[in-house]
Amino acid sequence: MTAPIKALCLALALTVGGAALAQDTGIAFEGLQAGADQPVEITADQLQVSQKESTAHFIGHVLVVQGGLRLSSDVLTVEYVNGDKTKIDRLIAEGNVLLSTPAEAAEAAQAVYALADRQLEMTGNVLLTQSGNVMSGERLTVNLADGTGRMDGRVRTLLQPAGN
User: Fold this and answer.
1) Could you tell me the CA-to-CA distances from 161 to 20, 146, 156 in Å, in that order?
2) Which of 4, 46, 130, 162 has the fewest CB atoms nearer than 10 Å to its CB?
3) How far apart are CA 80 and CA 136, in angstroms?
């Protein structure tokens, strides 16, 4: 699960640009590789595993911690690749999703990370904070393979002047 959690954290490094209805941004990777080889700890009130459906559901006060990375949500569903229960296909965090590092944070109602195409999508009142800059919208899509991101849905951006 280490690679998916690292990938989710990479989405936090969106470089904030000017406001627009839809906005493409770049991703900075500084500081996010630190701790990538550290253990991943997942805590939850309950764990339900379904071999038939190839899923694991962490339910209630879910907290994933790896080094300085924290992911919290009400529910975290791990979907495995059909036929191979050792490979993760998608991670789905739902309800009060908060993804943070010591320098960045993103919150939303839901986050879905598809490992095969390295796509992260956060939806529902998305709020992204980085270095004092804040961006909000309804959907944040990040392509971790090529380092691009896009915020959609009445995007609002608050930029701090340099040096503040």
Assistant:
1) 19, 28, 16
2) 162
3) 31
Contact between residue 18 and residue 30 where contact means Cβ atoms under 8 Å apart: no
The total number of residues shown for the chain amounts to 164
**Separation CA 31–CA 48 (nearest Å):** 34
Is the pTM of the predicted complex or chain greater than 0.90? no
Amino acid identity of residue 107, one-letter, is E
Q: How confident is the model over 126-143, as pLDDT tens digits?
A: 998 887 888 999 998 878
DSSP for the chain, please give it.
-HHHHHHHHHGGGBPP----SEEEEEB--TTTSTTTTS--EEE-SEEEEETTTTEEEEEEEEEEEETTEEEEEEEEEEEEETTEEEEEEEEEEEEEEEEE-SSEEEEEEEEEEETTTTEEEEEEEEEEEETTEEEEEEEEEEETTTTEEEEESS-EEE-PPTT-
- Cα–Cα distance between 156 and 158 in angstroms, integer? 7
Beta bridge partners of 57: 48, 77
pLDDT tens per residue, range 96-116: 999 887 878 889 999 998 888
Counting Cβ atoms within 10 Å, is residue 145 exposed (0-12), middle (13-18) or buried (19+)? exposed
